C-alpha cells in the first residue's frame, strides 16, 4: 500500500509534466482570446450540489461519486465535474448581478469511481468553460468552434464534432412518452440499467453503449422528431452559425449526454484513434440548471474536455511537443574552495533569470560532467582553483566541446548569448 497509488490515479512525472504545461498554456491563451476568465472552485463541495446539479438518475450520482461524511457530520463529495461548482460560485458570489454573459473557464482534477481502463481514470483532469446569461445560438456555435480550435492548435486532426438537440422541458415530455411506448414492447432486449431507465429517464437508453440496447434503439424516436418550434429554430440557427464558421459537424440524433440538466444543444467530440474511450470532450446548453440550483432563471452553456485523452490523442497522432530544456547551465566545481563559491554564483545566475544547478553529492569533476550530460545540459560552467584565481569560469559547450574562459561578471550574458545561437 505504501508504495502503490490508488487504482485509477496517475503520477505525472517530470518529462510528462512539460506536456501538461504546454497543453495548459495553450488552453489559457485560447481562453484569453475568447474572453473567458479563470475560476478556481474547491475540490470538494456539499454532496447535495451534485445530486441536484448533475441529476439523481445519472451514472455519476448513482454510482461514481467519492462521497464521505466529514468530522462535522456533513456529506462531502470530491467534485466529479466542474459545471455544478461553477453554477454554485456564480450564485454564491452574485456574479449574476454584474454584466452578462459571464464567461468562465477552469482546469483541474475531477474524481469519479469509474472502472479504470485506458483513457478512463478515477482522478482525471478536465478543462471546461461555462457561459452564463445568454440564450443566443451564436454562443452554442462559438463554444463548439472554440473546442475544435483548441484541438487544431494542438495539432490534432480527424476529430469529429457530433451535435444534437435534446429539446426543452416543453417538448421533452412528449419525447419521453414516445420513448416509453417504443421501448415497452422491447424490454427484453434492454440491459438491466436501461430497464430501470425506462421509467425514470428513458432518454438515457439512447445513450447506452450495450450492444443489445443499441440494436433495440435503432428505430427509436429521437428528440429531433419532436422539437417544439423554439427548439427547432434554435438548433437550425446553431448549425447555420457552425456552417458560417466553417466548422464541420455530424448531426447525431441519439446523442443525449448523461446529464439531466441539458436543454437544446448537446455535443460530443470524438477522437478516432484513442481506443474505446474515444470521447475527448462534450458539452451543451443547460438552461434549467441555474434555476434548479436556486438561482434566477438564467440560461447556460458549457463543455468539458478530458486532458488525459487529449494528450493520448496527441501521442497517438505523433504530435511533436515543443521541447523544454530544464537547465540553461550546470555549474561544475573542481574542489572545496570552488564548491564554496558555487552557491552564491548559482544564486546570482538565477537572479539573472537563468535556470542553473550544481552537484550535491560530492562527485568528482569528471563525474559531474557525466551527470550534466545525463541531465541534457548544453552548457557547463567549470569552476576550479585556476579559474578562482583569475576571476573567471570555463564555459564548455557540451555539444561542440568548445570551451572558453569567461569573466564572472560576463557569465550570465555569455550564457544568454549561447542560448540564442
Ligand atoms: P463528461 O463530464 O462526462 O461529459 O466528460 C467530459 C470529458 O471528460 C470526456 O469527453 C472525457 O474526455 C473526460 N472524462 C470523463 N470521464 C473520464 C474519466 N473517468 N477518465 C478520463 N477522462 C474522463
Task: Summarize this entry quickly.
The protein has 421 residues and is an alpha+beta fold.
Overview of this protein structure:
The chain has about 425 residues and is an alpha+beta fold. The protein has 2 domains: about 240 residues, BirA Bifunctional Protein, domain 2, CATH 3.30.930; about 90 residues, Anticodon-binding domain (Rossmann fold, 3-Layer(aba) Sandwich). It has 15 helices and 16 strands. It has an 8-stranded mixed beta sheet, with helices on both faces. A 5-stranded mixed beta sheet has the order 13-12-14-15-16, sandwiched between helices. Helix 2 crosses helix 4 and helix 5 runs parallel beside helix 9. The longest helix is centred in the N-terminal third of the chain and has 17 residues. The chain is elongated and about 90 Å long. Bound molecules: adenosine monophosphate (AMP). The site of adenosine monophosphate has 17 residues, from strand 6, strand 10, strand 11 and helix 11. This is Histidine--tRNA ligase. InterPro entries: aa-tRNA-synth_II, aa-tRNA-synth_II/BPL/LPL, Anticodon-bd, Anticodon-bd_dom_sf, His-tRNA-ligase, HisRS-like_core, HisRS/HisZ, HisRS_anticodon.
* Helix-and-strand structural type: alpha+beta
> What is the CATH T-level topology of the largest domain?
BirA Bifunctional Protein, domain 2
CATH superfamily of the largest domain: Bira Bifunctional Protein, Domain 2
Helix content: 25-40%
Order of strands in the sheet with most strands: 1-5-6-11-10-9-7-8
Query: Tell me about the biggest sheet?
Result: 8 strands, mixed
**What Rg do the Cα atoms give?**
28 Å
- DSSP E strands, number: 16
Total domain units: 2
Bound molecule types: adenosine monophosphate
Instruction: Identify the CATH architecture of the largest domain.
Output: 2-Layer Sandwich
Low-confidence parts lasting 5 or more residues at pLDDT below 50?
Answer: none
Beta-strand share of residues? 15-25%
Q: Let me know the average pLDDT.
A: 94
Just give the CATH class of the largest domain: Alpha Beta
- The rounded distance between the terminal residues' Cα atoms is 49 Å
Question: Which of globular, elongated, flat, extended, rod-shaped describes the shape?
Answer: elongated
Family: Belongs to the class-II aminoacyl-tRNA synthetase family.
Catalytic activity: tRNA(His) + L-histidine + ATP = L-histidyl-tRNA(His) + AMP + diphosphate + H(+)
GO molecular function, one term: ATP binding
Pfam family, one: tRNA-synt_His
Amino acid at each position: 500500500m505504501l508504495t502503490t497509488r490508488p487504482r485509477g490515479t496517475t503520477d505525472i512525472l517530470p518529462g510528462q509534466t512539460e506536456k501538461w504545461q504546454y497543453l495548459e498554456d495553450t488552453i489559457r491563451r485560447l481562453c484569453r482570446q475568447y474572453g473567458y476568465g479563470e475560476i478556481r472552485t474547491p475540490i470538494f463541495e456539499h454532496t447535495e450540489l451534485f445530486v441536484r446539479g448533475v441529476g439523481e438518475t445519472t451514472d455519476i450520482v448513482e454510482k461514481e461519486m467519492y462521497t464521505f461524511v466529514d468530522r462535522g457530520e456533513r456529506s462531502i463529495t470530491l467534485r466529479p465535474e466542474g459545471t455544478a461548482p461553477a453554477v454554485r460560485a456564480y450564485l454564491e458570489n452574485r456574479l449574476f448581478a454584474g454584466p452578462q454573459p459571464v464567461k468562465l473557464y477552469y482546469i483541474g482534477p475531477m474524481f469519479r469511481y469509474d472502472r479504470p481502463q485506458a483513457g478512463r481514470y478515477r482522478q482525471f483532469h478536465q478543462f471546461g468553460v461555462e457561459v452564463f446569461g445568454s440564450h443566443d445560438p451564436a454562443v452554442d456555435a462559438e463554444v463548439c468552434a472554440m473546442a475544435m480550435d483548441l484541438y487544431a492548435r494542438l495539432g490534432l486532426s480527424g476529430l469529429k464534432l457530433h451535435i444534437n438537440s435534446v429539446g426543452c422541458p416543453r417538448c421533452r415530455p412528449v419525447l419521453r412518452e414516445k420513448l416509453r411506448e417504443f421501448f415497452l414492447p422491447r424490454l427484453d432486449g434492454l440491459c438491466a440499467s436501461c430497464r430501470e431507465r425506462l421509467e425514470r429517464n428513458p432518454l438515457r437508453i439512447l445513450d447506452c453503449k450495450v450492444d443489445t440496447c443499441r440494436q433495440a434503439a435503432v428505430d427509436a424516436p429521437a428528440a429531433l422528431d419532436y422539437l417544439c418550434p423554439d427548439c427547432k429554430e434554435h438548433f437550425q440557427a446553431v448549425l447555420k452559425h457552425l456552417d458560417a464558421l466553417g466548422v464541420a459537424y455530424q448531426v447525431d440524433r441519439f446523442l443525449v449526454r448523461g446529464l439531466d440538466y441539458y436543454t437544446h444543444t448537446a455535443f460530443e467530440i470524438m477522437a478516432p484513434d484513442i481506443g474505446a474511450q474515444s470521447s475527448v470532450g462534450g458539452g451543451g446548453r443547460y438552461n434549467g440548471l441555474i434555476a434548479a440550483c436556486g438561482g434566477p432563471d438564467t440560461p447556460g452553456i458549457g463543455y468539458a474536455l478530458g486532458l488525459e485523452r487529449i494528450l493520448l490523442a496527441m501521442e497517438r497522432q505523433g504530435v511533436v511537443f515543443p521541447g523544454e530544456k530544464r537547465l540553461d547551465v550546470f555549474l561544475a566545481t573542481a574542489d572545496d574552495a570552488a564548491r564554496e563559491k558555487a552557491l552564491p554564483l548559482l544564486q546570482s545566475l538565477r537572479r539573472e533569470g537563468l535556470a542553473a544547478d550544481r552537484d550535491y553529492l560530492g562527485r568528482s569533476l569528471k563525474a559531474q560532467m557525466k551527470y550534466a550530460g545525463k541531465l541534457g545540459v548544453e552548457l557547463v560552467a567549470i569552476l576550479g582553483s585556476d579559474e578562482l584565481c583569475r576571476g573567471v569560469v570555463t564555459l564548455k559547450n557540451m555539444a561542440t566541446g568548445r570551451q572558453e574562459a569567461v569573466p564572472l561578471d560576463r557569465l550570465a550574458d555569455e550564457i544568454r548569448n549561447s542560448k540564442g545561437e
